[in-house]
Amino acid sequence: MEIPFTLGVMQTEKGDGAETVMADFVQFLQARGVTVGGLIQVNTNHPDGLYQMELLDLRTNDRYLISQPLGKSASGCRLDPSGLCDASAVLRREIEAKVDLLVINKFGIAESEGKGILQELFQALEQGIPVLTSLSSGYRENWSQIMDDCGQFLPPTLAALIQWWEEVSAPGHAHGAGH
Known about the structure:
Layout: H1 3-6, E1 7-12, H2 18-31, E2 36-45, E3 51-57, E4 63-65, H3 81-96, E5 101-107, H4 109-112, H5 118-126, E6 131-136, H6 140-147, E7 152-154, H7 158-168
Parallel strand pairs: 1-6, 1-7, 2-5, 5-6
Antiparallel strand pairs: 2-3, 3-4
């Protein structure tokens, strides 16, 4: 298994626009006939200053709410594990469908604790499906412990993601043309 090559890890910082870059990359590939499955996080701002976190299914456009409305004064994690569990079924479906690329919105708090959608990430890689995810610097140490620093680390730019995909999908690569 060529995990370092088929696992793209977009390194992100809060406010760097990485979600938009990932969405643009998905649209770029889909426009070229690449079957991209998985989930991208979409945040919706509300007038009260809070935002709602949803995961968007890239093939059906279904949305899965993954945040809990804890109120303005709450300081704890707003991640809703049941919403994340519902969304993980999307990833399992896409792995079974053997998509060309599986997008897993990010390695975050749940994954850093060995939960969340970590199992689906491992399953896709074991089956030879290239995976793209993102990683905030705040979780880099957890990533190193869980993933043993596997993956090709990429800056959050469309050009870097396109170059990575061209390498992953190149003829002669284990997952390239003819998959």
